[in-house]
Amino acid sequence: MRYILHILFFSLLTPLSNIWAEEGEIWQVAEQKFISEKVLLARLALSKNIIIGIRPDNPEHHRGTARLIEKLTKAGQKPVILVTSIERSKQNAFAIFRQRHHEIGKEYDATGLDMLLNWSQSGQPDWVITRPLFDMAMLKKIPIKAVNFSRYEIGQLHLNGLDGLPEDLKVTLQPLLARRTKGQATSRTKEKIRKEYCDTLPPEVLAKFVVIRQARESLFALAMTATGPKTAVLIMPQNYVEKDTGVPRILKDIGDAGETISLSFVETGQNIRDRNVDFIWVTAKIPRPRPCQTHLTN
Q1: I need a surface site. Which of 68, 104, 154, 216 has the fewest CB within 10 A?
Q2: CA distance linking residue 19 with residue 225, whole number of Å
Q3: Pairing of strands 279-283, 26-28
Q4: What string of DSSP letters covers 105-162?
């Protein structure tokens, strides 16, 4: 008995190296504790910038994001939803869609929006997975902004580096990116991309991917600063959310005065203790091939 008590005593003194959470639990990283959804919503309601990281192929991440934003509107927030899954050149599709339904004068969801966005050719997960967010936004009349580069613009960045930036963005993005191409943040970004691609990228291609990643992050950050007094809610893949390299870091670098909160939806089975975000919401894991195993077998 004394031996067991000694083990329990020292285990309490020893900091936990891993935290494994169950589906539905919410982890506050800075405080190293689990919190309720009510506490999370209270924090989000005080934030000017909310950054939500998701697994794009996980339906619950889209549904959870939609529920959170809807609850924030009920609490008095006036959000603008910034979506990184849609090219900025397609922004007019939202205006056309809303105008059509405004003329009819009835409540409407996102039925048919995917056709205007040419979603089936976008390379994104099936519309049925992503639709809940757009349904909610249309029903609640919440503005949506498409904030990603087009495929052509990405191609120009790949070929020409920062000289390939679109003309309408060069004045604002080039100075910002010139400051970001060196230093620890860039080294960390390079390491993350190397791991994401299972160490298969040649060095020259990896360098191009770093430029594209940083250009995207900078574009997303500038979009958040352009929402005026409304709350900017940016939705993007998890690998852009982290505070040491991602959009939160850029907002800090450019001196944005509003408080920024980052929330990442994470599937079960992962250590969440020290992730570089503010909050983690744990969801059920969905089966999918392990990416690096797929690379090795192809």
Answers
A1: 104
A2: 34
A3: antiparallel
A4: TS---STTHHHHTTGGGSSSSPHHHHHHHHHHHHHTT--EEEEEPPHHHHHHHHHHGG
> What radius of gyration do the chain's Cα atoms show?
21
List Cβ neighbours of 40 (8 Å cut-off, separation of 6 or more). Answer: 26, 263, 279, 281
Instruction: Return d(Cα 163, Cα 149) in angstroms, integer.
Output: 15
- Please answer whether residues 211 and 187 qualify as being in contact, where contact means their C-beta atoms are separated by less than 8 angstroms: no
Q: Which residues are CB-contacts of 242 (< 8 A; sequence separation ≥ 6)?
A: 248, 262, 275, 276, 277
- Structural domains present in the chain: 20-297 (3.40.50.11550)
- How far, in Å, CA of 75 to CA of 200, rounded? 47
Q: Are 78 and 72 in contact (CB under 8 A)?
A: no
With contact defined as beta carbons under 8 Å apart, do 19 and 273 qualify? yes
Return phi, psi of residue 215, to 5°. Answer: -65, -45
* CB-based contacts of 23, cutoff 8 Å, min separation 6: 268, 282, 283, 284
CA dist 138 and 93 (Å) reads 13
Tokens 């936004």 map to which residue? Answer: 137
Separation CA 9–CA 67 (nearest Å): 42
Residue given tokens 């299972």 in the structure block = 198
Residue type, 166: P
